[in-house]
Protein: DNA ligase
Organism: Duncaniella muris
Amino acid sequence: MSAQQRITELRKELDRLNHAYYVENSPLASDYDYDMMMKELEKLESEHPEFDDPLSPSHRVGSDITKGFTQVAHVRPMLSLGNTYSVEEVDDWIRRCNDLLGNLEGLKSVPIVGEMKFDGTSISLIYENGRLVRAVTRGDGEKGDDVTENVKTIRSIPLVLQGSGYPQSFEIRGEIVLPWKAFDRLNEERAFNEEPLFANPRNAAAGTLKMQNSAEVSRRGLDAYFYYLISDELPADNHYDNMIAARSWGFKVSNLMTLMDSIEEVDSFITRLDQERKELPVATDGLVFKVNSLRQQLNLGYTSKSPRWAIAYKFSAERALTCLRFVSFEVGRMGVITPVANLEPVLLSGTIVKRASLHNEDIVKTLGIHEHDMLYVEKGGEIIPKITGVDEAAREEGAMPIKFVTHCPDCGTSLVRIPGEAAWLCPNKYGCRPQIIGRLEHYVGRHAMDIDGVGEENAALLYDAGLVRNIADFYILQASDLEQLDRIGPRSAQRILEGAEKSKSVSFDRVVYALSIPFVGETVAKKLAKGTRDIDTLMGMSRDELVAIDDIGPRIADAVIEYFSVESNREIINRLREYGLQMSLPEEEESEKSDLLAGKTIVISGVFARHSREEYKEMIERNGGKNSGSISKKTSFVLAGDNMGPAKLEKAKSLGVPVINEDRFLEMLTE
Ligand SMILES: NC(=O)c1ccc[n+]([C@@H]2O[C@H](COP(=O)([O-])OP(=O)(O)OC[C@H]3O[C@@H](n4cnc5c(N)ncnc54)[C@H](O)[C@@H]3O)[C@@H](O)[C@H]2O)c1
Ligand SMILES: [Zn+2]
């Protein structure tokens, strides 16, 4: 292949990886592989300046610009950082800065600030007169997306500054991150709802910041660290002191930030922080070194993509080679089959690794794993172990490729593949032991019915003893039954019974969540409960009516309908009701309710000025009306805001359905 062909190929591939990483928030390659490809491209381009192209990914900042946001130009471009995986190259960079700045002081280097490189998504905040006025993403470096509303929900970001001495107008840049705990919770929820998982907290933070629903953004628990201050009236002439000042105004500035003035100090900082970062509550992917003096920064200047006065040192994940003992296939509570590599135990980043998820059939195939293969396992300090490759040279002669099971390893039912997805499912929902036990465990869980005393092990024990075959059986347990079981003493028996009793007062939305309806996680359950108010309404709703509830899509609607269409599920619901569980939300204040809209089916469309769509939907319900998702002959009227789609308008016209605006609607309610 000629250099020109290779350059074209690399540019195309890097553009594709950029889109997946910055826009879809779902990377297709490891950072290391991406960075190596980029370095190869940069090298080829410098050797062949005749093939240069200003649009090459090597000259541009990867763009996160997304549809649906307003774009705002940055006062100063937001750039990337040059990076390296080698300590020697950091040392070389420091020497180069010294040379370029004409620093001849021998052992002492120009002052360098070392910081954590937080692994999130960059943000630029503008403050005027001590108040936050705008928050913009990096975008393509020149302009970014205005995400002010979402950023305002992040509690550690000051909306109004503390202290004094801040410039009347300034910009501060930082990183929005999703702490490990919040990331794990989010992925657990997504796994349960069978939604694709976020690959890492960076992608989760970036995805969350671009959501259209600020209430959901707030719930996810983002955080932010700041590392760069820009203004015409800065408090100090150096980076370090400016950041200390920003901290006094209320910004979160990491206290790992360190001022150094020798290469030796920088090297030991790298060794120390590579350990310490494992204790941090947020993900980091390296360190950033910056020349401290602003005057020296100015003298060093910028390339088209990054400042010359800063460099990122990236941590590489630790890797080991170990033997595959066997692949097990595990059945989740929603029936999804997960292949798991069971390994010869190996020490990686301080922990012993014995198992690593292979996620799905596609991944097993892409890796090309054979029996007893030697596998490469990677684990960054805090990251779950991951199989990244196979040592094919070490393969035993005659070893067979790992075959995905065709039948459920537990109940033997033929597996089915979800169309368009990589997952295989055991369809025997109501007869497959791990699925049933999984649902029992979910039911008693802390976020669901919180039945104390029934942990993971006890759920299986109660099921196998025939005492609890489904969730309703928790309420007919007797102390005498429980005490017969070897592993449950009288004290635990008592706790289980009390826990079940207490769960009768758990609110209706959590009951809906506890049922294990596919795709119905905590948030969706709340929406369903709020949109229906009681179990009978929920059970009786049509697809159209369900879809009219905010954030309920056709996939969830179908899952709800299918769940309640199963006779045994309806029986369970009836039993739960008999035992006295909460099957409705508490009545609302009578004064707020009316039957002004009784018998009316209303479709909401467009964007409103005076209330949110959600509020209008609630108003309709409170006044006895019904929300519907699509216009038909049965629609009483369309409540239309701005930007109502022309197709909908046409349909309403052709069916003779009246279209009214929000002012008229609000008048109707006061008549
Ligand atoms: N895996 C993939 O397919 C893929 C695709 C595209 C990019 N990437 C990764 O992303 C990198 C390029 O992304 P990038 O341009 O955002 O660069 P980057 O993430 O490597 O570094 C620049 C960013 O670091 C952040 N940062 C965190 N802490 C900081 C601190 N203390 N000071 C200054 N900045 C700090 C800022 O947001 C800044 O924009 C690549 O090197 C690659 O590793 C991976
Ligand atoms: Zn099964």
